[in-house]
Design brief:
- This protein is an alpha+beta fold.
- The protein has a single domain, classed as 2-Layer Sandwich (GMP Synthetase, Chain A, domain 3).
- The chain is built from four helices and three strands; from the N terminus they run αββααβα.
- It has helices at 6-25, 62-71, 73-83, 99-117, and strands at 35-42, 48-55, 91-96.
- A three-stranded mixed β-sheet has the order 1-2-3.
- Helix 1 (6-25) packs across helix 3.
Amino acid sequence: MPKDYPRSRRIAEQIQRELSDIIRLELKDPRVGMITITDVEVTSDHEHAKVFFTRLGEASGNQSVVEALARAGGFIRSQLAKRMRLRMVPQIHFEYDESVERGVRLSKLIDEAVGGNHSTKS
């Protein structure tokens, strides 16, 4: 997020907090399950918000979660409108955040590499 848009950053942070509550407390779709909103990026014109999430479980089900969230987009947006004081609530676009998964894989590779070098010590 560019430093030139502090209002966009504040809006993104508030959207992240509100979406976490809405999804956890009010969204009843079982396909969504337990997800964590990791980041929100709002465009400078505040018309669109890209919402990144992670979830527990197999990566194979991530597309169905994105589809379920997109299907609930109208409900989620209306709930955001009730909670936030904005002239226009941004269009919400959900994306699976692969950075956490990549970090875990890298960490395992590092552990294996370090473990392989010290396998003679036991």
